[in-house]
Amino acid sequence: RIGKFMEGHAFFKKDDKIRIFSYDVLGDCTKFSTDYPGLINDVDYHTILKIDDGVIELEVIDKGTDYILCQVIEEGIVSDHKSVNVINTRLRRPYLSEEDKRVIKFAHELKADFLALSFVSSHENILDVNDLLINLGDDHISLIAKIENQDAIDDIDNIIKASDGIMIARGDLGVEIPMEKIPGVQKKIINKC
User: Fold this and answer.
1) Confidence tier at 71 by pLDDT (50, 70, 90)
2) Helix or strand holding residue 20 (H, E)
3) What are phi and psi of 43, to 5 degrees?
4) pLDDT for position 88
5) Which of 40, 100, 125, 168 has the most C-beta neighbours closer than 10 Å?
6) Mind giving me the DSSP string for 2-18?
7) Which strand (E) or helix (H) includes residue 157?
8) b/e per residue, 115-136, with b = 16+ CB within 10 A?
9) Nearest-angstrom CA–CA distance, 99 and 61
């Protein structure tokens, strides 16, 4: 996710250059930061970044030691803490953050029936959560994998086997793959389930 902006938002104009920093900066129409410092190492030149469910699109045109330089492809207003989708790129960050682990432990304490796992990219993500639940002594909570990216589609057979259910998040999936492919992908996943 994006950090904060000076006025809570900024306008990114088509063809402008925007720097994305690996450390926390107060954003404006020329720069912002994300909550994932490893982004610089994970992206390549010409990687497409979609912000706020694809409303704004940036292309990586250069990389520095502590920033990525992008050109605005699709302009728009971006505000604090909006999502960033990195297209056709697998990020090397751990699936579970410390906050995720705390929330899962809390769900265990509440005896929740289900956990919906956002942005699953492989069956390994489900196994990570399952391992945490085993360590908590929880054999009750069922895991629902939310299918929201191309990586999940690529590993769908294994994800189905590792999960107790599948949720197809068409909105987020439509940011990652062309919208016109969503109905076919959805039908394919339903048939596999």
Assistant:
1) very high
2) strand 17-21
3) -95, 155
4) 84
5) 125
6) B--BTTSEEEE-TT-EE
7) helix 156-162
8) bebebbbbbebbebbbebbeee
9) 33
User: How far apart are the C-alpha atoms of 57 and 193, rounded to whole Å?
Assistant: 33
In one letter, which amino acid is 172?
D
Tell me the two tokens of residue 68.
């990525």
- 80-133 confidence digits (pLDDT tens): 999 898 988 888 888 998 999 999 999 999 999 999 999 899 999 999 999 999
Residues 6 or more apart from 80 whose CB is under 8 A from it? 2, 3, 4, 5, 8, 9
Q: Is 174 helix (H, G, I), strand (E, B) or coil?
A: helix
Looking at the chain, the whole-number percentage of residues with pLDDT higher than 90 is 83
Q: Report the predicted TM-score, pTM, of the whole model to 2 decimal places.
A: 0.76
The DSSP call for residue 179 is G
Nearest to 86 by CA among 27, 23, 20, 24: 20
Task: Report yes or no: 64 and 43 within 8 Å, Cβ to Cβ.
Answer: no
Is the CB of residue 1 less than 8 Å from the CB of residue 81?
yes
In the structure encoding, which two tokens stand for residue 28, read together? 């404006």
Centroid of chain to Cα 131: 22
Find residue 167's DSSP bridge partners.
146
3-state secondary structure of 36: coil
